[in-house]
Amino acid sequence: MVARHIKTAGLVANTATSQKVSDIVKGVIDDIRTNGDKAVRTYSEKFDKWSPSSFKLTESEIQECISKVPAQTIADIKEAQKNVRTFAEAQRASIKDFEIEIQPGVFLGQRNNPISTAGAYIPGGRYPLLASAHMTILTAKVAGVKHVIACTPPILGQIPNATVAAAHFAGADEIFLLGGTQAIAAMALGTESIKKVDFIAGPGNAFVAEAKRQLFGEIGIDLLAGPTEVLIVADEFADPFTVATDLLSQAEHGPDSPPILITTSEGVGQQTIKFVDEILKNMPTAELAGTSWRDYGEVVIVDSLDEAYELADVYSSEHVQILTQSPREALEKMRNYGSLFLGEKTCVSYGDKCIGTNHVLPTRKAGRYTGGLWVGKYLKTQTYQEVVDEKASGEIGRLCGRCSRAENFEGHARSGDLRAHKYLQDSYSWIDEANK
User: Fold this and answer.
1) Which CATH number applies to 227-372?
2) Alpha helix locations (H) across 299-355?
3) Of the listed 319, 344, 395, 421, which one is catalytic?
4) Other C-beta atoms lying within 10 Å of the C-beta of residue 23
5) Residue 382 contacts residue 113 (beta carbons within 8 Å)
């Protein structure tokens, strides 16, 4: 493959900064593990300047928040949640319990049981990401999770009313105005006022992601997410203005969100660069989007679409948008991505906000081995087995004995021997000696 950059990224990850984040997060987690609510309040005051009498919103407080949200926003939340619910219900219906009889009298099966309790983190740093409520809480409820705790931070000392409304309509059982590492640690460890959960989902900043990483194992998590990523594959027929607009739509997430274009047309590449520069002149979020474009943006020229798909699989981006004449070709050509957005009529922002698929997606090349958040993440696929036929149990016992002794597991072998003895009358010296 011959690929040529006409714009390259200017920065690489700062490992020193990552270590500093890790150290801060560990200190917060250790303190909350020891001191519970007292430590939670200390860090909320320190990081968010927020220390109400109770971090948990009462039902009347929730209703007061909802009353302050414009009617159109409420209607839009409900419509977006309807889309998310419809897709999540289709996912749940695709996951089947089953039981098979692999031989006479031997039954194997699986059940998909929901996690009991889950925590949903809804970011609120630069933006009130109320759509994350749809993705985390509603998906958990469709999966059958009985108790979902939602945490979202105050924004500049104010309650994010629309986020609270979204969390309520999504089905949150408890809503806490609490953010950052302290929210993740409180849900994962449990405190005097916050129940310990079994699983935490939701995007967040570097501190939230690091807290989830450090606590993984004590609780389950959805993903180890990094900054938002977008990659566009474009042919010579793509509209450069659309390409530029859609790249910047994701670059505004933060100053380190990589926007990447792979195209078979140098003309499309050059025109896209020009349009990006023009759009940034009057874009309200230009400071963030422009920084991401300058430091992490790339434009790569390749000779064919096959090469474009091959290179895109190497990047394994979170969002991959296909702006070609035959966009569905990518479904067959690509394997590594968080989610595909096919054709000019489908933009990544649809997935972020309202179309119905989940926006919690793998980053940092994790699309090579996992997909994003979905109903199945909230389910435990658990197996069971039952042997009701004596002859079958005896024969499996013989097999178990041989397999176990091949691995020097004598105790395992004897469990198999016992069934062969009981049901097939096989003779074993260890049984005779034990019963003297």
Assistant:
1) 3.40.50.1980
2) 305-315, 329-333, 348-353
3) 319
4) 10
5) yes
- Residue 280, pLDDT score: 97
**pLDDT, tens digit (0-9, with 9 covering 90-100), for 361-395:** 999 999 999 999 999 999 999 999 999 999 999 99
Distance, in Å, from the CA atom of 245 to the CA atom of 235, rounded to the nearest integer, reads 16
**Strands (DSSP E) found in 129-179:** 147-152, 174-177
CATH placement of domain 16-62+113-222: 3.40.50.1980
| Phi–psi pair at 386, nearest 5 degrees | -150, 130
Whether 16-62+113-222 and 227-372 share one fold: the answer is yes
Report phi then psi at 107, rounded to 5.
-115, 130
Longest dimension (CA), the chain: 92
**92 HSE (CA, 13 A, CB side):** 19
Query: DSSP secondary structure string, 204-217?
Result: --HHHHHHHHHHBT
**Whole-angstrom Cα distance, residue 266 to residue 431?**
79
> Closest Cα to residue 94, out of 130, 142, 136, 133?
142
Residue count of the chain = 436
Q: Is 426 helix (H, G, I), strand (E, B) or coil?
A: coil
Q: Are 299 and 5 in contact (CB under 8 A)?
A: yes
Q: 298 an active-site residue?
A: no
Told to judge if 236 belongs to the known catalytic residues of this protein, a careful annotator would answer: no
Give residue for tokens 């390749």: 302
Q: How many CB atoms lie within 10 A of CB 112?
A: 18
User: What Cα–Cα distance (Å) separates residue 94 from each residue in 88, 91, 357?
Assistant: 10, 5, 15
Structure tokens at 401: 């004995």
User: What span, in angstroms and rounded, lies between the C-alpha atoms of 143 and 376?
Assistant: 7
pTM for this structure?
0.93
Q: What whole-number distance in Å separates Cα of residue 239 and Cα of residue 261?
A: 13
Nearest residue to 262 (alpha-carbon basis) of 319, 303, 302, 310 = 302
Q: What is the pLDDT of residues 54-112, one digit of tens each?
A: 999 999 999 999 999 999 999 999 999 999 999 999 999 999 999 999 999 999 999 99
Nearest alpha-carbon partner for 182 in 117, 121, 126? 121
> Is 356 in contact with 83 (CB distance < 8 Å)?
yes
Question: Closest Cα partner for 394 from 421, 374, 370?
Answer: 421
159: left (phi over 0), alpha (psi -120 to 50) or beta: beta
Question: Which of these is catalytic: 210, 252, 298, 318?
Answer: 318
Domain boundaries, the chain: 16-62+113-222, 227-372, 389-434
